[in-house]
UniProtKB/TrEMBL annotation:
<comment type="function">
    <text>Catalyzes the synthesis of GMP from XMP.</text>
</comment>
<keyword id="KW-0547">Nucleotide-binding</keyword>
<feature type="domain" description="GMPS ATP-PPase">
    <location>
        <begin position="2"/>
        <end position="194"/>
    </location>
</feature>
<keyword id="KW-0067">ATP-binding</keyword>
<comment type="pathway">
    <text>Purine metabolism; GMP biosynthesis; GMP from XMP (L-Gln route): step 1/1.</text>
</comment>
<keyword id="KW-0315">Glutamine amidotransferase</keyword>
<feature type="binding site">
    <location>
        <begin position="29"/>
        <end position="35"/>
    </location>
    <ligand>
        <name>ATP</name>
    </ligand>
</feature>
<keyword id="KW-0658">Purine biosynthesis</keyword>
<keyword id="KW-0436">Ligase</keyword>
<dbReference type="GO" id="GO:0003922">
    <property type="term" value="F:GMP synthase (glutamine-hydrolyzing) activity"/>
</dbReference>
<comment type="subunit">
    <text>Homodimer.</text>
</comment>
<protein>
    <recommendedName>
        <fullName>GMP synthase [glutamine-hydrolyzing]</fullName>
        <ecNumber>6.3.5.2</ecNumber>
    </recommendedName>
</protein>
<keyword id="KW-0332">GMP biosynthesis</keyword>
Amino acid sequence: DWTMASYKDDAIEKIRAQVGDKRVICGLSGGVDSSVAAILIHEAIGDQLTCVFVDHGLLRLNEAEEVVTMFRDNYNIPLVHADEADLFLGALEGVSDPEVKRKTIGKLFIDVFQREAGKIEGAEFLAQGTLYPDVIESVSFSGGPSVTIKSHHNVGGLPEKMGLKLVEPLRELFKDEVRALGRELGLPDKFIGRHPFPGPGLAIRCPGEITKEKLDILRQADAVYIDQIRKHGLYDEIWQAFAAILPLKTVGVMGDGRTYDYALSLRAVTSVDGMTADYYPFTHDFLGETATRIINEVQGVNRVMYDVTSKPPGTIEME
Ligand code: XMP
């Protein structure tokens, strides 16, 4: 794409002019925006950039490993992987109120990021994947950490607090333009086309108390569900699809035995911007096949439900 190619060259020049020979830190989440920002900045200034990936242990199956592999091995970008799953799980122990969950995760996320960023000597800039719609932002995600560290609604004042200046190379772009730029930078289509994923991660897909056991079940079930959607060629028609694990166990029968396991809720919606959404009309065959696969392949689940709530009145996420 000619336009994006020249946009890219321009953006690289601007980053070089702004940053000079100083060091830059970029928070990575595994999402498209922060990834595109990081790769673009790396093209501009190479190893003056260090990425910090705060891994809260609430990502999907294999996601953390994929982020690390992509950045370290494919792109050769210096990356600090702060694997803090235990820290986050510990802090979330006994917490079931959705807002307390979000605040707990948001606060820890900032603490860990700040700690790791503080170890990077001589850093003067903080890079963020802020997009144009974020700049004119009207929505607030009630305190959760964003996919990138977006000061306006998530980590208000962090750059100032850390004495860092902001680098925001995506500030003029809309989401589809960021995707085009990502392609221009060589990111695989599969990565660029991924459904949105919330900053607080699986925590808000696990209503009630979060446990390691529940997260493991959820990760397995979600992977089977998404695999089904991809196999049936439906992934790109859907804005967002995911499994949620419900805070209840129900009785079932398997072979000649009684089971008492978790119930899951599957969600899939179409949407233009996430502000409103309709539930996706899967066929009954698809739903039946998916429920059977999940129950057969995932230990600890014996019941699957499909969420037919649109937004409003529901939200896309469970909490
Ligand atoms: P809801 O559940 O409010 O979600 O209908 C709308 C869209 O926003 C995503 N979402 C978040 N994204 N940080 C994020 O970066 C958050 O705290 C957050 N909460 C919800 C959600 O996945 C959906 O795409």
